[in-house]
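Worked Example 4.2. Read the sequence first, then its structure tokens.
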Amino acid sequence: MKRILIIVGLVFVSCGKKLPVVAPNVITEKTLHDTDDPAIWINKNDASKSIVFGTDKNTEGGIYAFDLDGKIIEDKTIRGVKRPNNVDLEYGFQLNDSTQVDVIAFTERERKRIRLFSVPDMKPLDNGGFPVFKDAELPEADLPMGIALYKSPISKTLYAIVGRKTGPKEGYLYQYILLSDSLGVHAQLVRKFGEFSGKKEIEAIAVNDKEGIVYYSDEGHCIRKYHAEPSKGDKEIYCFGGEYFKEDIEGIAIAHYPKKSFLIVSNQQAGTFNIFDIKTNEFIKEINLGTTETDGCDVTTEPLGDKFPNGLFVSMNDDKTFFFHDLKKLSLIE
């Protein structure tokens, strides 16, 4: 009984107190409609020229490209996308025997498909898109929302793990292998996995490539944790953290340091972020970065030139912008 009382007290204090705002270094130019989820591409030749991609979630939406000053890079921006929801990025996709490319993948909800583009030349690799959830039976269960890419350290195979507007209590997520051959790139369903509480929906998905772990936000319930490698099975590893959120559990970002890694998760209606130890799943602290109703976020611990020498945290704000914080401001490590 004593332990339960302590937990309730922590949640009350966390959600009730007003935390000081950590001001952003940069606020991006506005998109046309409704920002949602970002992904950071690191330019390995010149990190100061890295790009932040962000979805603009609308029937006439797009994937915006921003430089590190928050300015829109028009020739890297993809427009005319039918309600793009979430976006993710991976490095070194094997396109053919001699070519590797970096890629972004994003969901296009109204066309019921996922898209795949090379970065930074922004060429489509998907022949118009890969249909998903083709066997869905429930209403809106074929409308993709969340997406995360996973590159297997074992096989170097690239996978897309995709969530949707609604779905069954078991097998809510679909995992597709992305394969390239002489005819192009193909997406093939390899498994259905992941429990769902049925309370709201599952949108935010993130993969810890180093450990081969999938995290996703079962909104209103908990952060769920599974193996990303299909061969390791579909059994849930852990369901945690729900007591630290005011209402919706949203965007997830993973920050890796040499000695410690962190899970940063949007506490949407509280206007804050909750930080967890990635190894123990323990709650560390809550921070206020000034955003409101944040859906998506992303992070890198790599220095990005003089502008962000300590790494970069990107989060969506509900005024059609993204906030850029130098990662040192989050005080993850001493």
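Now turn to a second chain, presented in exactly the same format:
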Amino acid sequence: MNENRPPPDWVGDVSVGVDAWTRRSSAPGTAAPPPDTVAQVPEADPEAVARKILLDQLTGQARTRKELADKLAAKNVPGDLAARLLDRFEEVGLIDDEAFARAWIASRGATRSDVGRRLAKRALAQELHRKGVANEVAREALDEIDPDDEAAAARGLVRAKLRSVERVDDVKATRRLVGMLARKGYGSGLAFAVVREELANAGREAVDEE
């Protein structure tokens, strides 16, 4: 390398250096810089994007209108476009809060195969409310629950827990079993009646502390 060679006249001046590089790149036989492919990508259609969001959310799982509306809002989909698409999805049956409520009750309520996770009407109503199901729609679906099924579910819960209270006295056993049913959404009247019946069947006595 010749250290005595004078530096280019653009050294120290960025703008002059850029001009020099540009002139070289445009010279014959010099490859041109690659095109800006990002600028050539067409802007996505907002409706197509929103529709894909909805279809992705509904793949393999039913959802309520409110859940889908919240998802669109989180993705900054304009409100008028979201409402129009949600209306259309309801028209074709892809969104059905009534069907959702019935399916949710079947999976979480008295007929659930997993006894330990069965919930009573009150707890189911709270869950449907959080899902955005209208109170009237939820009430109609909950009214279809057979009271005998709900009582049977409560008995199943108590029977599954009886072994856990074998070593405590009747007062504590009653309190724990009734409390367990209360957390599942069962009213105090039904809860105590079921606990009293099941403890009696086990040769014990439920103690009403009231």
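Notes for the reader: The longest helix spans residues 147-161. Residues 148-201 form one domain.
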